[in-house]
Amino acid sequence: MVLPVLAITVIVGAIWWLENRHDEGRSSSGEEYGPRDLAAALVPPGMEVGTEEGKLAPNFLLETLDGKEMRLSDLRGQAVVINFWATWCRPCRKEIPELVAGYNSYRERGLVILGVNLQEGKGIVRPFAEEFGMNFPILIDRDGEVGDEFRILGCPPPTSSTEAESCAASLPVRSSRKAKEPTYRVRSKRTTSKSELSRS
């Protein structure tokens, strides 16, 4: 008699949990996380959206590690570096301390670094971020759609011994002095020097 009641309670509890939990693929406003269209009003005449040098970076909306939300277009006009990474990526482990040092050196001058984790859960990402002292915003790309949009293809498999490639592609967002509109340059270098982080 107790077993059927317990089974029914577990089933009802599971159904309640599934119906009432926060949908991790959607923002609090109901908008899906991932790539988002850039409003036409934000695209200056003659500019295109894309990942190629000189184009406006594709927009996205992602949840941060601390449960907030971040949209790339909200950072318009600021110096931004987007770093795509994963906890298992050995080259990423080598470059994270450099990014932290660069952020600590240049954030007072307006540098923003976004660490976009590729397809790992918060339970895996949080201890890694704490271990490496990642004090810049960490965004979670659960489905890898933003990484796909930015054409991130350089992640070696976790068993790879080749460290020549990096899981990271950095995208500095710099304001153009002439047009007063941001221009973008996609870089695939593994490391970022201090001179590259400084604003021109």
Report on the structure:
The chain has 200 residues and is of the alpha/beta class. The protein has a single domain (27-197), classed as Glutaredoxin (3-Layer(aba) Sandwich), CATH 3.40.30. It is 28% helix and 18% strand. It has 5 helices and 8 strands; from the N terminus they run αββββαβαβαββα. The strands form 2 sheets. Strands 1, 2, 3, 4, 5 and 6 form a 6-stranded mixed beta sheet that branches. Strand 4, helix 2 (90-106) and strand 5 form a beta-alpha-beta unit. The model is unreliable at 18-22 and 156-200 (pLDDT under 50).
Shape: globular
Strand content: 15-25%
CATH superfamily: Glutaredoxin
Helix % is 25-40%
Low-confidence region ranges:
18-22, 156-200
Give the total of beta strands: 8
Order of helices and strands: HEEEEHEHEHEEH
CATH topology assignment: Glutaredoxin
Number of helical segments with 4 or more residues: 5
Rg (CA only): 20 Å
Distance between the termini: 75 Å
The CATH class is identified as: Alpha Beta
By secondary-structure content and strand pairing, the structural class works out as alpha/beta
Please state the second-level CATH architecture.
3-Layer(aba) Sandwich
Task: Please summarize the sheet with the most strands.
Answer: 6 strands, mixed
Average pLDDT over all residues: 77
